[in-house]
């Protein structure tokens, strides 16, 4: 596995985890949680979105590099 393939897999997994944490924290806030739950949820969703944007730039930048 190349470094490019590992990077794409790692960033995808990180974005999915960030979105999952964001959804979990927003749900906790909706169920009567604290303002901290809301803050964690919003920040996690923003981080997930940032990771998706970063991955798009990364893939576009290294489009001529093989995944093998």
What does this protein look like?
The chain has 2 helices and no strands. Helix 1 runs antiparallel to helix 2 (35-61). The chain has one domain (3-61). Helix content is 81%, strand content 0%. By secondary structure, it is mainly alpha-helical. It starts with a helix and ends in a 7-residue tail after the last helix.
β content, as a range? under 5%
> Using only CA atoms, what is the Rg?
15 Å
Structurally, the number of domains stands at 1
Largest sheet: none
Describe the global form: elongated
Helical stretch count? 2
Structural class: mainly alpha
| Average pLDDT score | 95
List the helices and strands and how they pair.
Elements: H1 3-30, H2 35-61
Helix pairs in contact: 1-2
Quick overview of this protein structure:
The chain is mainly alpha-helical. The protein contains two helices and no strands. 10% of the residues are buried.
């Amino acid at each position: 596995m190349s470094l490019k393939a590992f990077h794409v897999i790692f960033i995808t997994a990180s974005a999915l985890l960030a979105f999952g944490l964001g959804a979990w924290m927003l749900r906790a806030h909706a169920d009567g949680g604290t303002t901290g739950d809301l803050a964690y949820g919003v920040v996690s969703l923003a981080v997930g979105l940032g990771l998706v944007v970063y991955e798009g730039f990364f893939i576009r930048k290294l489009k001529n590099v093989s995944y093998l």
